Amino acid sequence: MERTPFGTAPGGQPVDVYTLTNKSGVEARVTNYGGIILSLRVPDRHGRFDDVVLGYDSLAGYLAESPYFGALIGRYGNRIARGRFTLDGQQYTLATNNGVNHLHGGLKGFDKVVWTAEPFENAQGMGLVFTYVSPDGEEGYPGTLTARVTYTLTGDNALVFDYHATTDKATPVNLTQHSYFNLAGDGKGDILGHVVTLNADRFVPIDPTSIPLGDLRDVTGTPFDFRRPTSIGARIRQDDEQLRNGQGYDHSVVLNKSGASELTLAAHVLEPTSGRVMEIHTTEPGMQFYSGNFLDGTLKGKKGAVYHHRYGFAMETQHLPDSPNQLGFPSTILRPGEHYRSRSVYSFSVSAV
Ligand code: GLA
């Protein structure tokens, strides 16, 4: 595995890029700054490789402004309303960084910290073990949280994310990966033609500040019904209150599961012009589907690419938003002595048609 310097983080720590490869020529470049996936090269149906994730060429790009391109998110993926929650009778106040709400771990979430990286190779493939110890009180969260996240590029073209955490005080934890995909190739156009299938009968309706209303809604008859393959663009401009509240798709779906923590299919995505397919399996109960609504052409990415509206989408496997305040949602509280464990697999292949 190749390791090259990528610059220096604002705290003075050196940052590296690790290049993971497999025998089919798939290549993922990953940095220990924020656990960011910088590039991911996978073949199309003619065997031509393209980078299918958005991002920047240099660390400076990520430091200047990044809507979480490629990053590892923690302690809490998505929002916690007003940055407040009560746990065991005590109220906690978190950093607010999205209007009045807390988003993706706060002002300096796990996407902006330097992780310790340990490369490995095994029978499955090659990868990195990232470790970060988040101090008690960081961004307002209780307890010292020791997070260990393993990225593996497998021999059969999958990226596997294994998350583990322990704590010394009860705390919410909801780790995820925030890569923006464009399976036609980074910067090559919008993602509206991607054909998506989601294994979800229900989704989480939100208010205009993207906080869950509390109910889990049946997707039947809504633009959130992706149980049959449907392009992202087919209904995105419909006059629908939920699409208005998210400014497009920016919602969690509730994955269909028979058992709590099995690894099951979450999403199948086909990009018809290239034939590239991405399939996501996860042990998580939900997945945030974000259609790149806040990209507006102001960010200039890799090799001069301009990220216009909806040039990338994210599928963030995770627990549901605002769970610490939504007592009907699966719990995100980790207690001392418990192990947080979560696995998500993003597999790449091609479709002949
Ligand atoms: C998540 C959020 C969105 C947005 C993006 C990044 O998907 O739900 O509202 O913050 O991350 O911009």
What does this structure look like?
- The chain is mainly β and 353 residues long.
- It has helices spanning 59-64, 241-246; strands spanning 2-8, 14-21, 27-31, 37-43, 49-51, 71-73, 79-80, 84-87, 90-93, 102-103, 116-122, 125-134, 145-154, 158-167, 171-172, 176-178, 195-198, 200-203, 217-218, 230-231, 250-255, 264-270, 276-282, 286-290, 314-318, 333-334, 340-350.
- It has a 9-stranded antiparallel β-sheet with strand order 11-12-13-14-27-23-22-17-20, with no helix packed on it. It has a 5-stranded antiparallel β-sheet with strand order 1-2-3-4-5, with no helix packed on it. A 5-stranded antiparallel β-sheet has the order 19-18-21-24-25, with no helix packed on it.
- A hairpin with a 5-residue loop joins strand 2 and strand 3 (27-31).
- The mean pLDDT is 97.
- Alpha-D-galactopyranose is lined by residues 67-68, 78, 103, 210, 250, 288, 290, 294, 314.
Secondary structure layout plus pairing:
Blueprint lengths: L1 E7 L5 E8 L5 E5 L5 E7 L5 E3 L7 H6 L6 E3 L5 E2 L3 E4 L2 E4 L8 E2 L12 E7 L2 E10 L10 E10 L3 E10 L3 E2 L3 E3 L16 E4 L1 E4 L13 E2 L11 E2 L9 H6 L3 E6 L8 E7 L5 E7 L3 E5 L23 E5 L14 E2 L5 E11 L3
Antiparallel strand pairs: 1-2, 2-3, 3-4, 4-5, 6-16, 7-10, 8-9, 11-12, 12-13, 13-14, 14-27, 15-26, 17-20, 17-22, 18-19, 18-21, 21-24, 22-23, 23-27, 24-25
The chain binds alpha-D-galactopyranose (GLA).
